[in-house]
Amino acid sequence: MLLSLSNVPRDYAWGSPTLLADLEGRSPAGGPEAEVWFGDHPGDPSDVQGGGTLDAVTDGTLPYLLKLLAAASPLSIQVHPTIEQARAGWARESSLDADDPTRNYRDDNHKPELIVALSERFESLSGLRPVPDTLRLLAALGGSTGVTELTTRLTASGDVLRATIGWLLSGEAQAEVDDVVASVRATAQSDAGEWATTLRAVSAIADTYPGDPGVVVALLMNHVVLRRGEAVFLRAGLLHAYISGLGVEIMAASDNVLRGGLTPKRIDVPELLSILDTTTGEVPVLRPSTAGAVTEYEVPVTDFALKRVALTGGHVDVDVSGPTMVLVTAGHVEVGGTTGDARPVPVGTVAFATADEVQLTLSGEGEAFVASPGPSSSEA
């Protein structure tokens, strides 16, 4: 069975006033539009054409949540727990009310996620940069007091990134944070060589979040620029933040977020540090196929799988297993299954195939993303 899904954009302050409207070919709503959720998450289940919401169809069992995400300014720096950490945190906080401001865990699930760029440029902070590279960046900033202190902490022994991030977020480093940010601003306006793009990005973040210690945390992270169709997978424990752009995001069905800066919201520094993975290195960029209509973004989790289908006037058959969504992001696309007639799917909406469908046919000219549960696994 095929169902048509839609939803109302969420108006988070960091949302773009134009990106979603431009995608869907409509007039802007007059305020920020940040995310459109497609799923059965109790926070905002999708609307089903004809009446009702998707959770009534699935009984809340979908293992993934699909989103359109439109950022005009940076989201908070954040990290998500492993499933073991989520279960332990959920049990530990079981006595707290759901709306308790000290609650960190909203469920007992992990939240790995994948973001695919829809805009021609999508900027993010993804993972921690190797410390020797960050020391080279700091050397380009000069020798101010804050830069010197930050360098000293990064050249100490032990898990220096965990210790340094804890110091930056402790509230005791504000003078050094302000000094480092001033050095970033000054250097970004000059010839910063290999670090020019990164420093301009961090300087712009500082304009949005003046005085926020997360700006210096951002300085420790990889600045990643995606082009349309490119993606990054963000595993549990990986520090990240989206800066700007339009994308398709898919994640495990969870709302567990620990924040690490660039936010007025509460930051639980000890809990953040307890789940933070300080392994450094670049996050691999997954690129779209240059041969064939289908790109499969391979991810090391079983909660979800995502494919991009580029249609040029013909049709593409896609084998599916389990409840599947087809999100149309460009052009004119029809979706048909084995148990019903093909139907047009407007840009920015979803055709949802229940688990009795085994193959979907996409036709027309445009682009669509096919989301489904990942391959089955014998792991607990």
From TrEMBL:
The keyword Zinc applies. The keyword Mitochondrion does not apply. Its cofactor is Zn(2+). It comes from the Bacteria. Keywords: Isomerase, Metal-binding, Zinc. Residues 2-130 form the Phosphomannose isomerase type I catalytic domain. Pfam families: PMI_typeI_cat. It catalyses: D-mannose 6-phosphate = D-fructose 6-phosphate. SUPFAM superfamilies: RmlC-like cupins. One of its GO terms (molecular function) is mannose-6-phosphate isomerase activity. Its EC number is 5.3.1.8. It is an enzyme of class 5 (isomerase). PANTHER family: MANNOSE-6-PHOSPHATE ISOMERASE. Belongs to the mannose-6-phosphate isomerase type 1 family. This is mannose-6-phosphate isomerase.
